[in-house]
Automatic annotation (TrEMBL):
Region entry Disordered, spans: 259-286
Name under which the protein is recorded: Malonyl-S-ACP:biotin-protein carboxyltransferase MADC
Organismal lineage: Bacteria, Pseudomonadati, Pseudomonadota, Betaproteobacteria, Burkholderiales
Matches recorded under NCBIfam families: malonate_beta (TIGR03133), PRK07189.1 (NF005530)
PROSITE patterns according to UniProt: COA_CT_NTER
Length: 286
């Protein structure tokens, strides 16, 4: 890649959530719903000494991508680590539910979810967990009608209950900088010890949970450079596809067969994980 090409690229990772959503939509089609001036703030953060944010860290916009009606849901990783509570979770679940209702009314609304989240917000634990469960159900409902595309670009990654949401998406797009895992590195280190998982060892962390590894193990579908135009092109191609019944979440028997062959007595290496996930068939469904 030439220096001129590098200079002409716009980093998607460096954009905030609202700018990321705008970068994906067709020019002139951006319309924000439940925005920062609508007063939808968390009622729980301030009483715990945390300054709330007007949109609760979740951006909901409607527009078109390649002419297709689309709702883009962007989580702001810079606010509380992208954690989800009652309000932000309700915005995500509600938008997905309305998109499914659009389809039942003959309007083919797609959805794109920009994941940048550590999962549930600890200050709103039970409320956040309930909201995330509603998000899961809404993704499964909507993907019957139209593609639900997940994007994990960086810098926070996608962990906790929202990593399950990412796994439920019709297709998942990741950059090299993105990370995907059920438990975050710091949590694993805290519970299992630094000898098991050193959260400060960045090459080690990315070798297991980064975009390249997740693509190689079949847990992501598209790997793209950190470039807004390239990411938009990848998403435009995916939202134009017909909905598929071949979702990863329908292949649990296949994944369980692979994990049954894993010997946990020694720490795995990235190549070991790739070999493990390369076994078995890709077409098993429940």
């Amino acid at each position: 890649m030439t220096q001129g090409t590098l200079l002409s690229r716009e980093s998607f990772v460096e954009l905030g959530a609202r700018a990321r959503a705008q970068a994906l939509l067709d020019p002139g089609s951006f319309r924000e719903l439940a925005g920062p001036f609508d007063g939808l703030v968390s009622p729980w953060l301030e009483r715990q000494g945390v300054v709330p944010q007007g949109d609760d860290g979740v951006i909901v916009v409607k527009g078109t991508i390649g002419g297709h009606p689309t709702v883009v849901l962007a989580i702001e990783g810079a606010f509380q680590g992208g954690s989800l509570g009652e309000v932000g979770g309700a915005k995500l679940a509600g938008a997905l539910e309305l998109a499914a209702e659009d389809n039942r009314q003959g309007i083919g609304t797609r959805a794109v979810i920009l994941f940048e989240t550590g999962g549930v917000r600890l200050q709103e634990a039970n409320l956040g967990l309930a909201a995330i469960a509603e998000i899961h159900a809404a993704i499964v409902d909507l993907r019957r009608y139209q593609p639900v595309i997940g994007v994990i670009a960086g810098t926070v990654g996608c962990f906790g209950g929202m990593s399950i949401a990412a796994g439920l998406c019709s297709k998942l797009v990741m950059t090299r900088e993105g990370r995907l895992g059920l438990n975050g590195p710091a949590v694993i280190e805290q519970e299992a010890g630094i000898a098991e998982y050193d959260s400060r060892d960045r090459p080690f962390i990315w070798s297991f949970t980064g975009g390249e590894q997740r693509l190689a193990t079949g847990l992501a579908d598209v790997h793209v450079d950190d470039d807004s135009a390239a990411i938009r092109a990848a998403i435009a191609a995916l939202v134009a596809e017909a909905p598929s019944e071949d979702a990863r979440s329908r292949r649990q028997d296949d994944y369980l067969r692979r994990l049954a062959d894993y010997e946990p007595s020694s720490q795995p290496e990235p190549k070991t994980v790739r070999k493990l996930y390369a076994q078995g068939t890709q077409g098993g469904k429940s």
